[in-house]
From TrEMBL:
Keyword terms of this UniProt record: Transferase
Protein name: Glycosyltransferase
Lineage, opening ranks: Bacteria, Bacillati, Bacillota, Clostridia, Eubacteriales
Keyword Disulfide bond tagged: no
GO MF term list: transferase activity
InterPro entries xrefs: YkvP/CgeB_Glyco_trans-like
Residues annotated as domain Spore protein YkvP/CgeB glycosyl transferase-like: 206-340
């Protein structure tokens, strides 16, 4: 029997839908999302936690979903994993040469097998001398449980025109910064240029264009087409209601010819919709051009094909149906997972076994009390088939429950009736895009089995105790959500929590597992001023106040990304800061919002007194490159508020995390 541990930034909905759910359904697998761990602890906690899971879970394969977390892991971590005899398999969701490929290749020595969604990424590695057994082309697939048609549509010979609601639809994010519309993210420039062209084509042809996704209401031209956010479960229906799904894909090299094969190419086909996309040789290997998918090469061809297919319903339907059959026959995530784990010489992975833990949800303590009173004396018998009971009480929004770590414990612990677990509580999302729950936008706390109330904001402590049965003793609180109970002690323990009587259950066998089981978002009852503001912004404001007075020459390192976007938004509030420019290797020589952009080699001649690093993902690498320049400038890393430089620049500013209270 072999077990898989999947690790990565798994909070994003499309990752959950297309990787986490299928792998849990098909295999004996645990899936640990490191986003909450990284969002709440910055001291390498995530690596130590995962090593403990691996030591105790008898895993044979570590499946590393590398997107957005490669730089959060050390080489030492993977060395320890390999020393355990665990195979390490990585999947790169973005891997096109040159930008994304170069970001990945420096980490690939860690892995026994690299599965890349990009054929060009695979070919580049082979060209550089890689062993062909270490690299696998694994295009995206899709979750057929979310993207499908009913059987009547599949068997019908003609399309159903009654469901059509839109002429042309695009789903995707407006990839620009919020505070500076001149800064594009990844392939944002190519995407905007092509969608603007499409808008004017639709105007010429008297067609309606609808754009669904985050941020289109901010675009000066396309805002009139904005349709708002669409949840993943609604996307298939939107695709099916469109005559044409406009579905271009570009890599981070952000040029019209820098094509990329994306997840949504498979989702659109899986939904049974007709899609029109930019020419893509890789995609043409997966869907037959002209018969299962339609490509265009330039603006003129785009206009001609829209004008043709918008009026040829039967031909559109035949292409959509052929794509549907191809997608469901060859390109589901089930197909991809079988290819991947067959390619790692894993031949005896067992099917997933259900964890015998009963999750019971109650909206309030009062509802829990009514349930307990109505089942007095019978709870143990009613729940006796389960190894443990987990009570979730309150208005918490459950993002994830990961019981896999404690499953093996339940088989080993004979005389333990109460198992302590941990909760990541997101107290405020830093971004309005609920479809993309990224680690850099998560703002929360890790609640251990016993919580010192002096370590968390008062509002959070009061919220937990109001929402959930919680024992309080000697300045510490223990919420019921952080415990798994054996059925035989449920009545006794729950009664003690409801009556606030810790002594009633203190004599029971207790085990502190350290397992982070709960990933919750606080409900609307928690209201903390400025909670949506990242902690580094408060530190930045104090520093900018100081710089307005002493007029030191300030240089910002980092122009793109969410952190840089917020920094430049804050700079507008401090007009007397002596800002001499910003550094970005790819944008040097440009003037953006009146700020000159320089390259790294320009820094010595600029003679800054201070450099603020406004980059989260690449922040540590930037810091290393700036070390030789610390004789001339103080370097303040916004991504690391524990750096001692903050105590030097802003005495008494550090200590416990600032939650904006």
């Amino acid at each position: 029997m072999k077990r898989i541990l999947m690790v990565g930034a798994l909070s994003i909905q499309y990752v959950k839908d297309n990787w986490v759910k299928p792998i849990r359904e098909m295999y004996d697998a645990a899936c640990i999302d490191v986003s909450p761990l990284l969002a709440s602890r910055k001291n390498g906690y995530h690596e130590q936690y995962l090593l403990e899971v691996l030591r105790r879970g008898n895993f044979d394969v570590l499946f590393f979903y590398s997107d957005a977390v490669n730089k959060d892991f050390s080489d030492d971590f993977f060395g320890y994993v390999r020393a355990m005899g665990v195979k390490i398999v990585a999947f790169h969701a973005d891997d096109e040469p040159e930008v994304w490929y170069r970001q990945n290749i420096g980490h690939d020595h860690r892995f026994d097998l690299v599965a890349s969604h990009s054929l060009r990424g695979v070919q580049q590695r082979l060209h550089e001398g890689w062993d062909k057994n270490r690299i696998l082309w694994l295009p995206w697939g899709f979750n057929e449980n979310l993207f499908h048609r009913d059987q009547n549509w599949v068997e019908h010979e003609n399309g159903h025109s009654s469901e059509v609601k839109y002429d042309i639809v695009f789903i995707g994010t407006n990839l620009v910064q919020e505070h500076n519309q001149q800064i594009y993210l990844r392939d944002g420039y190519s995407r905007q240029q092509m969608l603007t062209d499409l808008y004017y084509i639709c105007q010429e042809l008297n067609l309606e264009l609808k754009l669904f996704g985050f941020g289109w209401e901010r675009h000066p031209v396309l805002k009139e087409c904005a349709g708002g956010l669409v949840a993943n479960e609604e996307m298939a229906r939107v695709y099916q209601q469109a005559r044409i799904v406009f579905n271009p894909g570009f890599s981070a090299d952000d040029a019209i010819d820098s094509y990329q094969t994306k997840l949504r190419h498979f989702e659109v086909a899986g939904a049974g919709a007709f899609q029109l996309t930019n020419e893509n040789p890789e995609l043409s290997r997966l869907f037959q051009p002209g018969k299962e998918i339609v490509f265009f090469r330039n603006r003129e061809e785009l206009k001609d094909k829209i004008n043709y297919f918008i009026t040829h319903d039967e031909e559109r339907y035949r292409i959509a149906k052929a794509a549907y059959q191809r997608a469901h026959g060859e390109h589901t995530m089930g197909h991809r997972l079988r290819t991947l784990f067959g390619g790692t010489d894993i031949t005896d992975i067992v099917t997933h076994q259900e964890v015998l833990i009963k999750t019971m949800r109650f909206s309030s303590k009062e509802e829990l009390r009514r349930w307990l009173d109505g089942n007095k004396g019978t709870v143990s018998k009613q729940l006796g088939q389960f190894a443990a009971i987990h009570f979730i009480v309150g208005d918490f929004v459950v993002e994830n429950l990961e019981y896999s770590f404690v499953r093996s414990l339940l088989q080993k612990l004979q005389s333990v009736y109460v198992i302590g677990i941990r909760t990541y509580l997101e107290v405020g999302a830093l971004h309005d895009n609920y479809v993309q729950r990224k680690k850099q936008d998560m703002h929360g706390l890790l609640l251990t089995e016993e919580i010192d109330i002096s370590d968390i904001p008062r509002e959070v402590s009061e919220y937990i105790q109001y929402q959930c049965p919680t024992l309080s003793e000697k300045g510490k609180i223990r919420p019921l959500i952080n415990y798994l109970l054996h059925p035989s002690v449920v009545e006794r323990v729950v009664e003690s929590f409801l009556n606030l009587e810790p002594s009633t259950s203190n004599d029971l066998g207790f085990y502190c597992s350290g397992a982070v089981v709960n990933d919750f978002q606080a409900g609307p009852a928690l209201d903390i001023p400025d909670i949506r503001t990242p902690p580094y912004v408060f530190r930045l404001r104090k520093l900018l106040e100081k710089l307005q007075v002493d007029r030191q020459r300030l240089l910002i390192y980092g122009v793109r990304g969410d952190m840089a976007d917020r920094v430049f938004g804050q700079l507008k509030l401090y007009p007397n800061v002596n800002l001499i420019g910003a550094v970005d290797r790819n944008l040097q020589g440009r003037m953006i919002a009146g700020i000159p952009i320089y390259g790294f080699d320009d820094i010595p001649s600029l003679k800054p007194d201070m450099v603020i690093i406004a980059a989260e993902t690449s922040g540590s690498a930037i810091y290393e490159s700036l070390k030789p320049l610390q004789h001339m400038a103080a370097v303040a890393p916004l991504y690391d508020l524990s750096s001692p430089i903050w105590d030097v620049l802003l005495p008494f500013s550090t200590g416990k995390m600032n939650y904006g209270l």
